[in-house]
Amino acid sequence: MTLLPRSLYGRLLVTALVATLAALAFAALTIGAVLDRFVMHGLDERLDAQIAILAQAVRPDGRIDRTRLILAAPYDDPANGWGWRIDAAGRTVASPAPPDLDAMRPPRDGPPPPFAGRDPAQPGALDWRDRHGQLHARSLTLATPAGQVRITASAPRAIVDRPLRAAMAPLLGSLALLGLALGAATLVQLRVGLAPLKRMREGLAAVRSGQATAIPADQPRELAPLASEINALLEENAAALANARGHVANLAHGLKTPLATLALTVRPLDPDGTLGAQIARIDQAVRHHLGRARAATPGIASRVATPLASTVAGLVDALSRIHAERRITAAVAIDPALAVAVDPQDLDELIGNLLDNAWRWASRRIAVEARADGSRFLVLTIADDGPGIPEATRAAALAAGQRLDERGDGHGFGLSIATELATLYGGTLLLDTAALGGLAVHVTLPLGLGGSA
Questions:
Q1: CA distance between the termini of the chain
Q2: What CA–CA distances, in Å, run from 43 to 36, 281, 293, 427?
Q3: How confident is the model at residue 411 (pLDDT cuts 50, 70, 90)?
Q4: Which burial class, exposed, middle or buried, applies to 396 when counting CB atoms under 10 A from its CB (0-12, 13-18, 19+)?
Q5: Can you list the alpha helix ranges (DSSP code H) found in 210-270?
Q6: Stretch (H or E) spanning 313
Q7: How far apart are CA 260 and CA 297, in angstroms?
Q8: Alpha-carbon dihedral of residues 73, 78, 84, 86, nearest 10 degrees?
Q9: Which DSSP string do the residues of 166-187 spell out, in sequence order?
Q10: Dihedral sign, CA of 85, 87, 88, 91?
């Protein structure tokens, strides 16, 4: 189980913040160590200077010439923690507050003994605590005929700690501000750097909704191959979809008319309806599998947004020419912004069958209107002023091949085809009495992305 977030944005943000905090911590420790070393070096130089002055009082024979001892500030004040001492042949000369070597306690990290492995002629650093607090000392050992002479000068560690604390406060504040600036820069960098992925996702959403056929090819160098592969896949799917729909359409046209003709032909020769029932079963099976083939085609209902007003206008114009002798007036009231998530070919077939029926049965007028029904569907109503269909026979009118009036041409499949297509896209088809006095067909269809509620 990983501790990183599942999102790419979160992972990049977490890793960037961890790296920034680690870099700032390393910078604080490094700068602090450099400052400590710099301040300590200055203190060591002051102590070494004092040791050099005290060394002038040691004669070549190991005796101490007190006349050469200089007691100057800050070593003349016993309360400030500064001190020195000279140890030679059992004799000690010291300042008013000399360092207490007997009370020496090594630091916790356990350094080597003060003079182990060192050149006795060079000063060495010592740290210990006594009654004055933590002290820092430098010591020089001289070899004389009378024995070794050790000169020690000490100073309070506060001389180092105070400037370090004073310097670290603004340093940490500056690092904190730097961390905030780096965090803000990281957020900006992530937003700018991941923006192409967001645009690619929006492009895929546009393809899925039917607003585009491919995602934009103008992508950053790292994403361009991915965009090219996605577009190639979309082209292959579109070609496969067109091929499948072509086969479905050919099969539909090849089977519907022969079956309808066969049903009408055998009707006079089929008094008990046995042959008609079998033909109806074949017809239902064909329609069932054609519907499944349509429904199984990837993205039919979700990747299209077919404008409704222009589709209806085109069909009305075509049917008014076909049925020009009937002099039917068609009134269309559809918002141009409405679109449905129905394939254009299926929408033409659905509305075309309903309008053709209305044109055949209307006396003088046809009314077509559409309204949004919530945020996901719209209701298309096609009404006429013809004789209508009695409520008792409306269910039979929706059956495949069923005609309630044998006058005129046609095979009685218009309403059943429209019902199947509406159901295929998750909609419904209902028959009602129109305000014009004839039949009103209410078709519920899913709104496309271009539709509005």
A1: 45
A2: 11, 107, 91, 90
A3: very low
A4: exposed
A5: 224-266
A6: helix 308-322
A7: 27
A8: 120
A9: HHHHHHHHHHHHHHHHHHHHHH
A10: positive
Residue 402 has pLDDT above 80, yes or no: no
Residue 182: both structure tokens together? 């780096």
Q: Is 100 within 8 Å of 128 (Cβ atoms)?
A: no
Q: How far apart are CA 431 and CA 418, in angstroms?
A: 12
Q: Determine the Cα–Cα distance for residues 330 and 318; give it in Å rounded to an integer.
A: 12
Residue at 120: amino acid letter: P
Q: How many CB atoms lie within 10 A of CB 47?
A: 22
> Is there a contact between 351 and 412 (Cβ–Cβ < 8 Å)?
no
Q: What separation in angstroms does the CA of 152 have from each of 32, 53, 114, 161?
A: 28, 12, 11, 21
Please report, as a single letter, which amino acid is at residue 254.
G
Beta strand 377-384 pairing with 365-373 = antiparallel
Pairing of strands 124-130, 91-94: unpaired
Query: How many of the other CB atoms lie within 10 Å of CB of 292?
Result: 11
- The radius of gyration of the chain's CA atoms, rounded to the nearest angstrom, is 49
Can you tell me the distance from the alpha carbon of 367 to that of 385, in angstroms, rounded to the nearest whole number? 9
What tokens were used for 351? 């509305």
Helical (H) or strand (E) element with 417:
helix 414-424
Query: What is 118-157 written as a DSSP string?
Result: S-TTS-EEEEEEETTEEEEEEEEEEEETTEEEEEEEEEET
- Whole-prediction pTM: 0.48
Which residues, in sequence order, are CB contacts of 314 under 8 Å at separation 6+?
none
Specify the pLDDT at position 308.
Answer: 92
Rounded to whole angstroms, how far apart are CA atoms 421 and 345? 11
Pair 50, 75: CB distance under 8 Å: yes
Q: For 166-200, how does the pLDDT look when each residue is reduced to its tens digit (9 = 90+)?
A: 888 888 889 899 999 998 999 998 888 888 888 88
Q: Which residues pair with 51 in a beta bridge?
A: none
Tokens of 322: 């076909």
**Closest by alpha carbon to 208, among 226, 230, 223?**
230
d(CA 97, CA 78): 5
CA distance 37 to 99: 23
The helix or strand, by DSSP H or E, that contains position 8, with its residue range, turns out to be helix 8-55
From residue 25, give the alpha-carbon distance in Å to each of 20, 37, 328. 9, 18, 85
The pair of three-digit structure tokens given for residue 231, joined into one six-digit string: 């577009």
* 165 three-state secondary structure: helix
Q: What whole-number distance in Å separates Cα of residue 299 and Cα of residue 211?
A: 13
- The Cα 388–Cα 372 span in angstroms is 25
Tell me the C-alpha distance between 303 and 342, whole Å: 9
Which of helix, strand or coil describes residue 302? coil
